[in-house]
Amino acid sequence: MNSEAAPDPGRIALGISYSGQGYEGWQSQPSGRTIQDHLEHALSQFADQPIATLCAGRTDAGVHGLMQVVHFDTPVQREPFSWVRGTNRFLPPDIAVEWAQPVPRSFHARASAIARRYAYVLRESPVRPSVDAGRAGWVFRPLQAEPMREAAAMLLGEHDFSSFRASACQSHTPVKTLHRIDIHRRGAYWRFEFEANAFLHHMIRNIMGCLVLVGQGAQPPSWMRQVLQARSRDAAAPTFSPDGLYFLGPVYEPHWGLPQHSAAYDWLP
């Protein structure tokens, strides 16, 4: 028996940005074509040993991340900047480690998050996206801001969001607390920001489908309350495209000392 004790693993948190185009979402799949697969391969290459990660919130195929947060345990000792630069050497150009920070063993990327934030970027134009294809949703009919804001306000607070829940959702409960929905426009682009304690599978994309119908005048703002109260997926609009959906990242208590902003935020409309 080896009398020398194994080193106690340290816990590292990372902030990750990525384009969801060309990937099968966050969670590892047999194909290896996911963000998690590429990140764990790069970390394992850099650390010269297998590393498994746990994320703050899984994203679907085509959904982008501006500051996904993960944590992992490892006995490997590296400076934070080395985890950033070293791991990025082994990542494809559309995935990057933005920052690294040692955290206590009590920190958990998912369980320690008190809220999660998303943005949806939507292009209103007679012409489909080109340069921004895959990075913005698209509508060709004009939208009106005030009806959408009125409809969005009906979703704030704690509700049963079953009407906006995908059939494959694994959440234990459809009851979530939606803290805010902000809607503003910059030129041809609309930006919808969502913050909640947690989200159901496809919840934002299903809400977006409803907001677009209201914004185009196909439904009145009061329809949103009817959809919510129905607690049935059949009551809501079809699921909207993933192209313009961005995971802005989790929100943590200040005492963890983790970054709340990354450079990837600054280019988003």
TrEMBL record:
A single GO BP term for this record reads: tRNA pseudouridine synthesis
Q: What EC class does the entry list?
A: isomerase
Could you list this entry's UniProt keywords, alphabetically sorted. Answer: Isomerase, tRNA processing
InterPro entries from the xrefs? Answer: PsdUridine_synth_cat_dom_sf (IPR020103), PsdUridine_synth_TruA (IPR001406), PsdUridine_synth_TruA_a/b_dom (IPR020097), PsdUridine_synth_TruA_C (IPR020095), TruA/RsuA/RluB/E/F_N (IPR020094)
Protein's UniProt keywords contain Transmembrane helix: no
Q: Does the keyword Nucleotidyltransferase apply?
A: no
Q: Name one Pfam family in it.
A: PseudoU_synth_1
Q: Where does substrate bind?
A: Y118
Q: Where is the Pseudouridine synthase I TruA alpha/beta domain?
A: 17-110, 151-252
Active site residues according to the UniProt entry: D60 (nucleophile)
Enzyme nomenclature, EC number: 5.4.99.12
Q: Which reaction does it catalyse?
A: uridine(38/39/40) in tRNA = pseudouridine(38/39/40) in tRNA
A GO molecular function for this record? RNA binding
Belongs to which family? Belongs to the tRNA pseudouridine synthase TruA family.
Q: What does this protein do?
A: Formation of pseudouridine at positions 38, 39 and 40 in the anticodon stem and loop of transfer RNAs.
This protein's assembly is summarised as:
Homodimer.
The name this protein carries in UniProt is tRNA pseudouridine synthase A
- What species does this protein belong to? Ramlibacter rhizophilus
